Give the backbone structure.
Amino acid sequence: MIRSVLAGAGVVVLLLASLVGLLWVFQRSLIYLADDGPVGSVADLLPGGRDVVLHTSDGLDLDGWYIPASDEGAATVLVANGNGGHRGMRAPLADALSDAGLGVLLFDYRGYAGNPGSPTEEGLARDVRAARTFLLEDAGVPGDRLVYFGESLGAAVVAELATEHPPAGLVLRSPFTDLASVAAEHYPVLPVRALLHDRFPVVEHVARLDVPTTVVLGSADSIVPPEQSRAVAAAAGRLHRLVEVPGAGHNDRALLDGDALVDAVRDLAEHTTG
């Protein structure tokens, strides 16, 4: 009997060790769900938009789409995607924001939609800085009319960017407190805090900021627990609004380009530009 129990325990330990090993090696392929496309044509998806190329500090060229603001005094929104899909899937959001008079930049991270490179926390930080540089230097967008919008993982990306380059306003959609906390929700038996290479400490970043911040979440989000997004809002140094969309899940249209989301971005943009 004892031998059988010990043998069974040994099998469980071996399986857990194997699982931990696989997670250590392949974790970034689980975090970054890079989609090669096809992305589609900007002319078909976003009339008035144009193809642009962003140049990162480590020598990569990334593809993006830019729609100038229809009003010279309006804000421009830098959109940082979540961990899946590509910019073509965010075209409805960009279209809605453009209809509201705002400028919009969509882009894909390294390793996504045919872009070179492989995604990492450091790499995405370089990518979003390239997007900001394009808007300021190539598109001529004034810094006091630049709003960052981050979706899920993208919320972590723009929160980190804001600590070095504060925007006029910051919108975080379905943000997690930090990557290990959300990973622990999905892999509760694994020591994810010890294993993760990439950290994305969102709460730590937003607590340092003094910019108007809006947090948008879905009350039925099964990917990022709503309480984590609320914790981000509570930590924000200058919370403008907390918008909860009743019954909305992480990938529901309501949180992709729904009225409540678009209104939240537009409201913050109007607030920051006076």
Observations:
- The two ends are 75 Å apart (CA to CA).
- The longest strand covers residues 61-67.
- Residues 180 and 187 are 10 Å apart (CA to CA).
